[in-house]
């Protein structure tokens, strides 16, 4: 019953937006775009609150990075009215890697976090937040890019070189380390430098301080299209069983308000399905949110969708890989039990 009502509310918001959009085109001149945008925004917000007669619950959500196609769904859910249909108002913050996101979860400055699979290890170190659902599986959406002046053309050419990642203990960190592991090199055969957001890493690659960077497949292809580097490889085949991204919830919510966690996850996986079924809107939103060329987003859309998880289920084989990765990254001294990384009972999430 709740699921059908939820779907009906989302459909009502979408229909209301369409009617308002048609009215705007009939009344205003084509050149008055700003006025139309204001009208549509006000109409949708007003219609949503009035139609459903509910008080929206404000939740604070943190994204570990800005350069993630799945994470851009948070903003798409706002634009389509999906979050409002779930009775939620989102306050979205973006951080500079998993480390900063986990700090925010520990401080209580965000309620939910969208971060990496390896980030689940922080719970075993005392961060009061656990994974409750998987967002994306194998890392098809992550790529290795070498600088234009590096003259590196193969993975073997990276031996003895510097690779830039976002933060220590992050997904980019683990993937970079896996280059040495998969090639049976010593861990010291490549030097990994945490450098924050992609702008800092790109600048370091241009200057020659870095030979390569690990980043999203969209940013990787944009760098290549701009003539600043070359995409050397993606990580899908290297790590076939994995959870690239997961949803974290603070323990206080998991224990004290599990219904809110379920409502949030219902809203998210409704949004994920919308991204899968509405390519044009998903591409435009991701381009706006990630500040990338829509052409690049469209080119990589199929890769991204193929790696997304649409019900939040955890893969036991992927969890085993992540458990081992936590020791590899130095996050933990030993591989933790699964129960220390996540809380069961919230996934799978059914939206139809």
Q: How is this structure best described in words?
A:
With about 350 residues, this protein is α/β, with parallel strands linked by helices. The protein contains 14 helices and ten strands. Helix 9 packs antiparallel against helix 13 and helix 11 (about 260-275) crosses helix 12 (about 280-290). It starts with a helix and ends in a 24-residue tail after the last helix. Residues about 1-50 have low confidence and may be disordered.
Instruction: Give the biggest beta sheet.
Output: 5 strands, mixed
Structural class determined from secondary elements: alpha/beta
Oligomer: single chain
Q: Approximately how much beta-strand content do the residues carry?
A: 15-25%
Distance between the termini: 11 Å
Which strand order spans the largest sheet, edge to edge or round the barrel? 2-1-3-10-4
**Could you say which overall geometry the principal axes of the C-alpha atoms support?**
globular
Spatial extent as radius of gyration? 21 Å
Q: What percentage of residues falls in helices of 4 or more residues?
A: 40-55%
The number of helical runs is 14
Q: Spans of 5+ residues with little confidence (pLDDT < 50)?
A: 1-52
């Amino acid at each position: 019953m709740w699921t059908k009502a939820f779907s009906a509310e989302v459909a009502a918001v979408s229909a209301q937006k369409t009617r308002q959009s048609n009215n705007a085109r009939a009344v205003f001149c084509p050149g008055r775009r700003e006025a139309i945008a204001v009208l549509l925004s006000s109409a949708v917000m007003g219609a949503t609150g009035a139609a459903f007669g509910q008080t929206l619950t404000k939740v604070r959500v943190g994204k570990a990075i800005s350069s993630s196609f799945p994470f851009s769904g948070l903003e798409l859910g706002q634009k389509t009215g999906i979050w409002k249909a779930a009775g939620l108002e989102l306050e979205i913050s973006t951080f500079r890697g998993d480390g900063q996101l986990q700090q925010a979860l520990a401080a209580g400055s965000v309620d939910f976090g969208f971060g990496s699979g390896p980030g689940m290890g922080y719970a075993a170190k005392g961060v009061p937040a656990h994974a409750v659902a998987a967002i994306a599986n194998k890392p098809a959406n992550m790529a290795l890019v070498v600088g234009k002046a590096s003259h590196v053309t193969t993975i073997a050419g990276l031996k003895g070189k510097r690779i830039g990642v976002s933060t220590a203990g992050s997904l980019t960190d683990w993937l970079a380390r896996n280059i040495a592991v998969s090639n049976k090199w010593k861990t010291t055969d490549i030097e990994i430098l945490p450098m924050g957001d992609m702008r800092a890493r790109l600048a370091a690659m241009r200057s020659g301080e870095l030979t390569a960077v690990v980043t999203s497949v969209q940013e990787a292809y944009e760098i290549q299209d701009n003539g600043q580097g070359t995409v050397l490889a993606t990580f899908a085949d290297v790590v076939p069983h994995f959870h690239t991204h997961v949803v974290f919830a603070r323990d206080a919510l998991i224990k004290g308000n599990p219904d809110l966690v379920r409502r949030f996850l219902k809203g998210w996986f409704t949004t994920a399905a919308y991204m899968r079924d509405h390519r044009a809107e998903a591409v435009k939103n991701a381009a706006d949110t990630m500040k990338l060329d829509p052409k690049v987003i469209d080119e990589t859309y199929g890769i991204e969708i193929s790696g997304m998880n649409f019900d939040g289920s955890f893969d036991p084989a992927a969890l085993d890989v992540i458990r081992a990765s936590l020791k590899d990254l130095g996050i933990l001294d030993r591989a933790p039990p699964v129960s220390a990384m996540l809380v069961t009972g919230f996934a799978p999430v059914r939206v139809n």
